[in-house]
Specification:
alpha+beta; Jelly Rolls; 4-stranded antiparallel beta sheet; 8 helices; 30% helix; 26% strand; binds 2-oxoglutaric acid; binds fe (ii) ion
Length: 271
């Protein structure tokens, strides 16, 4: 590619999706600096591991989110706690057990979220730690199961909505989605994103009583990323995003968020 050509250079500089063979600091920095919106690392986990982990996850079994019907998960998302004391207590009481449940489901392979936590800790000078909140360790590594034909409706992810007035949420500069794709349909199941960032108040108004915004209420997404088995994908979770309906098979992922608070601060992970 002739990068001296101004039109080519512009097109390259504005492509929001970057594909990189390894998880490199410069790519993470590009994501943090808002130069790209999606970073995809193909084959972060190899095929044999994905096949075995898919079996382990299915036999462990999925339950629907408390507040998002038809979306299956193993583990629990802090999003489900909805500022309700009993559910928050349950989230923290089960956090470490759920991390261990995911490890057992993935055995004899390491849980991909554990591998991710090691690699990101090695890449980032300030390291990466498990997020704490109210002095307690959070859960990370939620496995999500999307049935064929069912989308994950459009939403953004904002820690501060669920943990308002906490230093942990207020100090966040960026919140990235981190997904490891274990078993994904050949057709559909793309991660779709919209360019504009709406405020949380605007989002809550648009979704009404639903957990997120139905796709038919929005125009087409501005860009999509088609995951393949074994991919690790980061994206800016503050942009509106959705999972488009997949075809034929359940779409299984292992997921979390990555929080950035400054170049010298540790990164943190949670679900
Ligand atoms: O499964 C995906 O591709 C993205 C799911 C999502 O919304 C998230 O991880 O925040
Ligand atoms: Fe999300």
């Amino acid at each position: 590619m002739n990068i001296a050509h101004p039109r080519t250079a512009t097109a390259f500089a504005t492509n929001p999706v970057r594909v990189s063979s390894t998880l490199a600091l410069e790519d993470l920095v590009a994501l943090i600096r808002n130069e790209i919106q999606v970073l995809r690392i193909p084959r972060f986990i190899d095929d044999n591991a994905c096949k075995q982990i898919s079996k382990g996850l299915k036999s462990t079994g999925y339950n629907d989110y408390l507040n998002a019907p038809k979306v299956g998960r193993i583990g629990m998302s802090y999003f489900e706690t909805a500022k309700t004391k009993e559910i928050i207590d349950h989230y923290f009481a089960t956090a470490i057990d759920n991390i261990n449940r995911l490890r057992s489901a993935c055995a004899p392979y390491p849980c991909p979220m554990d591998t991710f936590r090691c690699v990101i800790d090695e890449v980032w000078n300030g390291g990466c730690t498990l997020q704490t909140l109210y002095g307690k360790k959070m859960f990370v590594g939620l496995s999500r199961c999307m049935k064929p034909g069912i989308p994950l409706k459009a939403h953004h992810d904002m820690f501060a909505r669920h943990a308002p007035d906490t230093p942990e949420a207020n100090s966040l500069i960026s919140q990235f989605g981190v997904n490891i794709y274990i078993d994904v349909p050949a057709k559909g199941g793309e991660l779709g994103m919209w360019n504009h960032e709406i405020s949380d108040a605007e989002f809550l108004e648009q979704r009404g009583d639903d957990y997120a915004i139905p796709l038919d209420q929005l125009g087409p997404c501005d860009y999509t990323t088609k995951p393949e088995n074994g991919d690790l994908i980061f994206f800016n979770a503050r942009k509106l995003h959705a999972v488009l309906p997949g075809e034929g098979i359940d779409r299984l992922t292992i997921s979390g968020f990555l929080g950035y608070r400054g170049d010298k601060e540790p990164l943190t992970v949670w679900s």
